[in-house]
Amino acid sequence: MGVLVGKQVPDFTAAAVLGNGEIVDEYKLSEAIKGKKAVVFFYPLDFTFVCPSELIAFDNRFQAFQDRGVEVIAVSIDSQFTHSAWRNTPVNEGGIGQVKYTMVADVKHEICQAFDVEADAGVAFRGSFLIDEDGVVRHQVVNDLPLGRNVDEMLRMVDALAFHQEHGEVCPAGWQEGDKGMDASAQGVASYLSENSGKL
Fold first, then answer.
1. Which of 7, 10, 160, 179 could tie 114 with a disulfide, CB 3.0–4.6 Å?
2. C-beta atoms surrounding 195 within 10 Å
């Protein structure tokens, strides 16, 4: 499994369903996220089991991502038409409803291969990538197919990255918005641990 952290995010152009329901033939990642943070997350298939819970979880927190200036983009190997059909299926019938973020159609599997998240079955693992304003991947996590991800953890990573960018300090284990950071020095770690080691 490849590690993209610290590298430029692989760019792509593909058909997609936008958050307003519009189907477009050419959605270009670099243009959509230029100068902004973004989360690109992969999932195996539309109309399956764990997947709708994750997509709804992202949608329920969509405003929280927007408030932080973060674009959210979902990717699977389904077509844009299947994405649209799933969006138009009510939640109580196994659909995801009118999610407010873009759903990209990776029908040729080129995107999941570029991000190195393609499973042996040909679908994508549950990969999540946090990208900064310069298009650099700053965080990634990849779950196996049966294991649903924690969307709140991605929000925590967004907050941690913003804190580091603003203050220059690093974020210790379990850091949450409002917590103290740590100066990246021997004195900084000693000072932090002397006050907080019992909470870790």
1. 10
2. 9
Active-site choice (9, 29, 33, 51)? 51
pTM to 2 decimal places: 0.96
Active site annotation includes 112:
no
pLDDT at site 139: 98
Provide the CA 53 distance to its chain's centre, in angstroms.
15
User: Can you read off the two tokens belonging to residue 187?
Assistant: 């004195």
Please report, for residues 122, 156, 177, the alpha-carbon distance to residue 152 in angstroms, rounded to integers and kept in the order given.
Answer: 28, 6, 12
- Specify the pLDDT at position 1: 56
- The continuous run of DSSP H or E covering 141 comes out as strand 137-143
Please tell me the distance from the alpha carbon of residue 157 to that of residue 38, in angstroms, as a whole number: 12
